[in-house]
Amino acid sequence: MNAAKPRYQQLKDLIIGRISSGELKPSDRVPSENELVESESVSRMTANRALRELDDEGYVERVAGRGTFVSDFRSQSHLLEVHNIADEIALRGHMHSCKVIRRSLQHARGEVAKALHVAQGTDVFHLLLVHFENDVAIQLEDRHVLASFAPDCLEQDFESTTPSAYLTAIAPLQEAEQVVRASVPNAAVKKHLNIDDEASLVVIRRTWSDGRPVTFARLHHPGSRYELTGHYAPPGKARTTLAEVVQLEELRQ
Amino acid sequence: MNAAKPRYQQLKDLIIGRISSGELKPSDRVPSENELVESESVSRMTANRALRELDDEGYVERVAGRGTFVSDFRSQSHLLEVHNIADEIALRGHMHSCKVIRRSLQHARGEVAKALHVAQGTDVFHLLLVHFENDVAIQLEDRHVLASFAPDCLEQDFESTTPSAYLTAIAPLQEAEQVVRASVPNAAVKKHLNIDDEASLVVIRRTWSDGRPVTFARLHHPGSRYELTGHYAPPGKARTTLAEVVQLEELRQ
DNA sequence: CTCTCTAGGTTGTATATACAGGCTAGTACA
DNA sequence: TGTACTAGCCTGTATATACAACCTAGAGAG
Questions:
Q1: Are B180 and B221 members of one domain?
Q2: Which of A32, B35, B175, B198 shows a CA-CA span of 20 to 30 A to B225?
Q3: Which residues, including other chains, have CB under 8 Å from residue B195's CB and lie 6 or more apart?
Q4: Of A111, A183, A186, Cβ closest to residue B245
């Protein structure tokens, strides 16, 4: 299990550690390849691979001739910010509230065990909550958390701190995968979101910390009240946003 | 404009080309590093970098001691990646076809004029096409293109070249914004996608070139046959993908 | 025939070296 | 003072080499 990590990976971990500890802050200069050659006794190609991959992964930004600098994560995090529904709602200037439907300790089975890469029967916490934006249901959060990762999970007051805020406080969640689907909600989802004949937008997200998956969530949203947005380049200026432009009028004929 | 691509990138393009042309199909063996050293006259480290990055990007899968093989399920597209549906389908090793429902010159009005930042009445081309994956409808493309940007738009054979491939050939599309929604399809969408009681996943996308919006599209997908995926950090390899894990079982109770 | 083991191909990593090209500070010059 | 230029650091790429670990087909032993 404890196979020695390759040297370039150790270098990456070293830099990531300095970033997440706060020793290196956004736009700070990261040691150059040659400095790493000196201080870590590696060849320049190994230092190059470590820094290049950190660049690919968005941790740092490299400029030929100048150096390597810690990324300002904002550019990349517009979707990770969506991670915390409470912040998202606050950014819109609205009021967030939350109701816990269920919370329990379960034994992982089926897709939960697979998603979290644990054996069937492993302890996991299950949380089921509804998030409201100005008292309108906006998200049904159906989350499983590895019990060993967050032992005090059931004691948390999730009506004041969302699970994702709680989880990021425990440990940095470094990686995330998600799948976005449209589906016809079943009765339970309809009930909790208070919708009727309406599609739901489902975001299924798995988040990793320290190289292993720690939480797996299905986030159901009412199709008429929620959407995801993204851009590929800074829209920067005050242009009309696509979301503003797009009305609910649909294709005719 | 014509900066020579680095050699490792040329190798990647070569392999990707063979995959999307169908010459290499899922689970086929890709030339080994040493074979590329021979055939392409590069050093093994350069071939290694090309194949390793293709692995990181999910195009191929590498197994120490056995070889490199074309990945199988690339059945999803990246959430934040401007994609060409034909390429996406080709990468899955499937057959793409397309049927033009309508094409016409129109005068922009309402949301189209707003989205493209032009005055009401400006000339725009309207395209309505259905894309098929192995003869199953997978996307209804409802697109508006600024006529001044692509004057010969109506002469194109969109059944062999998709609009997005045609548009990127005219000029680099530098920025894109998109909104993702779940909705209940109306009659026209149902008819063209050949679905019934099913939600649809709608991607609304506006693309910019040279600082102005040039095209605006609504892409409707059947909720049961299409999903978007995203990664925020390389999940590494040899792990089960989230999309593989997530079955259609939904929240109970 | 069956089992074991090994040779050789494949990926994974690490190093040393080399050259090209971008960027900047500071020097030399006008 | 101001401008041009260059030395020096930085990243980006490419190559040659080396060794380790993994996998498999096939040779050889029983």
A1: yes
A2: B175
A3: B137, B185, B222, B224
A4: A111
